[in-house]
Amino acid sequence: MAMQFATSDEGDNILDINTTPLIDVMLVLLIMFIITIPIQTHAVKMNMPIANSAPPPVPPQIVRIDVDFDGTIGWDGEIVPDRAALEQRLRAVAAQPDQPEVHLRPNKLVPYRVVAMILASAQRLGVTKIGIVGNEQFL
Can you say whether residue 29 is alpha, beta or left, with left for phi > 0 and alpha for psi between -120 and 50 degrees? Predict the structure, then answer.
């Protein structure tokens, strides 16, 4: 019987629903759903590249121009004596078909006119891959 009637000590009727058959039905339904759900595969199909014998790419060449606090210009650690020598080296960089990256690293105390002169010369001569490095010192 689904419903039981019981009496308490005071004579009131207590209505209790027998939940055991409901739990049994829910468990059977849960098992049926688990069985009928298709198994999910956690695989991702990918088209992987085929290995070839090509050499790895060559890292880009980097030219470092350092500007010291007194305006002294260094090209990869070597001091450049004057603006003409600097422009000659920049002209050689601009003439290359695959230009190397030029990293301009000014000192915090160098006058801006020296840095602006280097940037203007590089732009006039056709250097396209130039950037200022070390901006964190100006924060």
Answer: alpha
